[in-house]
Amino acid sequence: MSFRLSVTRPLIAATVLGLSVSTALAQQSPTPTKVRGEIERVDGDSLSVKSRSGQDVKLQLAPDAKVAGIAPVALSDVKPGSFIGATTVPGPNGTHNAVEIHIFPESMRGTGEGSRAWDLGPNSTMTNATVDQSVASNDGSTVTVKYKGGEKVITVTTKTKVVTYVPADKSDLKQGAKIIAFGKTLPDGSFQTSRIAVGRDGITPPM
Q: Which of 9, 45, 101, 132 is a plausible cystine mate for 61, CB 3.0–4.6 Å?
C-alpha cells in the first residue's frame, strides 16, 4: 500500500504542475501584431477595417492610443543626422533595396533602434537608425545608416516611397482613411491598438 501511495503522489504532483503551466500559458498576453488596411466604419473608439489581405478586422482603440499622421516628403529631406526607419528587401549582390523610408520627428528619435525582420513582404527587414551619409549619383542613391551594433547601406530607387510623421488625432480616423495599427489580438478575435498611423490626404502608410 505504501508503495502505491509513493508512486501516486508524484503523479498527482506532476499533473497539478502540468495544469499550472497550461493555465499560465493561457493567461499570457496575446501576441503583438499589426493591421494594415482601410477604415470602413467608425463607431466611437471602435473601427471596422478591411485589411490589405481582405479580412474584416474589428479595431479597438486603447484608452491611451496615440495617433500619428503620415505624409509624403522628398528624398532630399533624408539628411545626415536624421533618424529614420527603412523597410528593405534583398537586392542583387547583397544590396538592401528600400521599399520605403520614414523620417521620425526629433521627439521619436531612438524608437525601435536596430534592424529586424519585418512583414511587409518576403524577406523584408525594418531598420531604424541614424543617417550617416547620403550619396546621389546618376545610377540612384544610397543612404548609409548606423545603429547600436551595426550599420547598413540602403539603396534608394525611383519606387522607394519617402514619408514622415505629422500631427494627427482621432478625428483623422475616418471612413476611407488608410492605416497601420500596432497592438495585440484579443481573445474574442478583435484587435486592440495603442499606436496607429493614418495616411493624410489619401496616402497609404508604406511601412
A: 45
Query: What is the distance between the alpha carbons of residues 86 and 98, in angstroms, rounded to a whole number?
Result: 6
Do 118 and 47 belong to one domain? yes
The whole-number pLDDT of residue 134 equals: 87
Residue 30 has pLDDT above 90, yes or no: no
Predicted confidence band at 37 (pLDDT cuts at 50, 70, 90)? very high
What is the model's pLDDT at position 32? 52
58 plus 158 within the same structural domain:
yes
Q: Measure CA 172 to chain center.
A: 20
What is the percentage of the chain residues whose pLDDT exceeds 70?
Answer: 84
Same domain? 112 vs 90: yes
Domain that holds residue 12: 1-30
Matching residue, cell 522607394: 160
Q: How far apart are CA 88 and CA 108, in angstroms?
A: 21
- Read off the pTM: 0.80
Domain co-membership, 23 together with 66: no
Asked whether the beta carbons of 198 and 177 are under 8 A apart, the reply is yes
Total number of domains constituting the chain: 2
Residue 14 shares a structural domain with residue 56? no
In contact, 89 and 97? CB cutoff 8 Å: yes
| Phi, psi for residue 122 in degrees, rounded to 5 | -60, 130
